[in-house]
Design brief:
Number of strands: 13
Distance between the termini: 57 Å
Order of helices and strands: HHHHHEHEHEHEEHEHEHEHEHEHEHEHE
Helix content: 25-40%
Strand content: 5-15%
Radius of gyration: 29 Å
Oligomer: single chain
Number of helices: 16
Strand order of the largest sheet: 1-2-3-4-5-6-7-8-9-10-11-12-13
Largest sheet: 13 strands, parallel
Length: about 500
């Protein structure tokens, strides 16, 4: 599968030749003798592959070479060393230009008779379109025809990179450099970049994306904790079409704005706004009220916002959110323990737009806050209030009467919820499909029978750690045949 690699292609940076090796090479720095399937005869002046130290940007430690990551891993036929007792893993770094015509006659004969080469270009392109980024780069190393097909711009609307040890900055640099060849300094085809879990990704990598990919629409950097506000500013200011941004686990990010300083208002940018619709800032522990106020004022088009475990947020932050982002449909405040009933009153100002709300483990929330949401958000479909110990049957009754289209409800670990609240749910919310009552100590078979008799579309019922009789569970199974019952009662099977 190797192609001719003459001396004129031997150094990195001459054309796009180094990309395949950068994306697929991983092992030790120390060059050793070649493997059998890539070795060249002694005396052969021009070899089909070049033994060298792999590009330092994407080298993985030798101990991980045999268990490479799902993406950006080494070729399967280059992982076995010729000597099992060797202290270092064998390294063959292939610096590939566009495959040439000086292949060995035996290889050429085998290639021309391969059945896959009978497929037309459009069929191969369809096959390549389902390959991940690292496999697509490997395909470019097969022959001249596959090289041209693998780098077809239509295949490069998305880049997905994974691996904790991956040198993500370098991978992004070499890929964008190759994709910018037809349109110098800019890549107009790349719209989605997913580098979740690449812990070595830094601001440098995002600066490259911001400069080269103005058409970027989706960026996911979950778990890349070296990302800071500066890199996020570069991306949102240079990529005006960005709609989906996942920053979960980026603990250094404290705001998203079109100004270098978070304290500045929107006016310096002449009224420009960030077009983000989806924003996930789960586990951004440094996010505070001022940062969320800045995000709300710069991102008025938000429809999905996830702030799980942003423990520094208070009710005051939610006031700005409701004021500047009236189109929010999904909002998660799980484990934001400083949010209380006043915050839910502000969330209720979203009114008819809100469909999904999670306030799990927000222990300051009581019936008062739930009543505000129920009264002003009648189109609510999903509510997660697990662990809100101040919620009682009274609040559940307000919810049932005001939100008849409720589909999913989680009130697990709410010890004050009892059969009375379930009976009101069964009466007014007959379209319920998922209900979690885990560890609700006051729930008995009476409430479950009311649910099963009226909510025939029930698909999931969680009654783990509840004092419910097997007879009541059998009643649920008879009336809701599609319902999965999660329980801890050994007498029911």
């Amino acid at each position: 599968m190797g192609a001719n690699n003459g001396k004129q292609y031997g150094s990195e940076g001459k054309g796009s030749s180094s990309i395949s090796s950068d994306i697929s090479s991983s092992t030790d720095h120390t060059p050793t003798k070649a493997l059998k399937n890539v070795a060249t005869t002694e005396g052969l002046e021009t070899s089909t592959r070049t033994l060298s130290t792999p590009s330092p940007g994407l080298i993985l430690p030798s101990k991980s070479s045999s268990l490479s990551s799902p993406a950006l891993s080494s070729n399967g036929n280059e992982t076995n060393s010729s000597s099992s007792s060797s202290a270092h893993t064998e390294t063959v770094a292939v610096i590939h230009p566009q495959p040439g015509v000086h292949t060995r006659s035996r290889q050429s004969k085998t290639y021309h008779h391969a059945p896959i080469n009978l497929l037309p270009d459009h069929t191969l392109l369809q096959i390549f379109s389902h390959l991940p980024t690292n496999q697509l780069c490997r395909c470019a190393r097969v022959c001249r025809r596959w090289y041209n097909l693998a780098w077809d711009p239509r295949l490069w609307s998305t880049i997905r990179l994974t691996g904790e040890l991956l040198h993500a900055d370098r991978a992004i640099r070499v890929l964008t450099h190759r994709l910018c060849q037809d349109t110098p300094n800019v890549c107009l085809t790349l719209e989605t970049v997913v580098v979740n879990g690449c812990k070595r990704l830094t601001d440098r990598g995002l600066h490259i994306l911001a400069q080269c990919c103005p058409e970027l629409r989706r960026l996911e950097v979950a778990g890349c904790y070296n990302i800071s506000n500066d890199a996020v500013f570069e991306v949102v200011s240079r990529c005006p079409n960005l709609e989906h941004l996942d920053l979960s686990g980026c603990s250094k990010v404290t705001c998203i704005s079109l100004t270098q300083e978070a304290s500045l208002q929107l006016s310096p940018m002449h009224g420009q706004q960030i077009s983000i619709h989806f924003l996930d800032m789960t586990d951004c522990f440094s996010l505070e009220d001022e940062g969320l106020r800045t995000i709300a004022s710069h991102c008025p088009r938000l429809t999905h916002l996830y702030l799980r475990r942003c423990s520094r947020l208070t009710d005051e932050a939610l006031r700005h959110l409701a004021l500047h982002c009236p189109s929010i449909r999904e909002l998660s405040l799980s484990d934001c323990r400083l949010v209380g009933d006043f915050g839910l009153r502000e969330v209720a100002r979203l009114e008819g737009c809100l469909r999904y709300l999670s306030v799990a483990h927000c222990t300051r929330i009581t019936d008062v806050g739930v009543r505000y949401v129920a009264r002003y958000c009648p189109r609510l479909r999903y509510l997660n209030a697990r662990g809100c110990e101040g919620l009682t049957d009274h609040g559940l009754g307000h919810l049932a009467r005001s939100c008849p289209k409720l589909k999913s409800l989680d009130v697990g670990k709410c010890p004050l919820v009892s059969d009375s609240g379930l009976e009101q749910l069964a009466m007014y919310c007959q379209g319920l499909r998922r209900v979690s009552l885990r560890a609700c100590e006051s729930v008995t078979g009476r409430g479950l029978k009311a649910l099963a008799a009226n909510c025939c579309e029930l698909q999931l019922l969680n009654v783990q750690d509840c004092e419910v009789s097997p007879e009541a569970l059998r009643f649920v199974r008879r009336h809701c045949r599609r319902c999965i019952i999660e329980h801890t009662n050994p007498a029911f099977y």
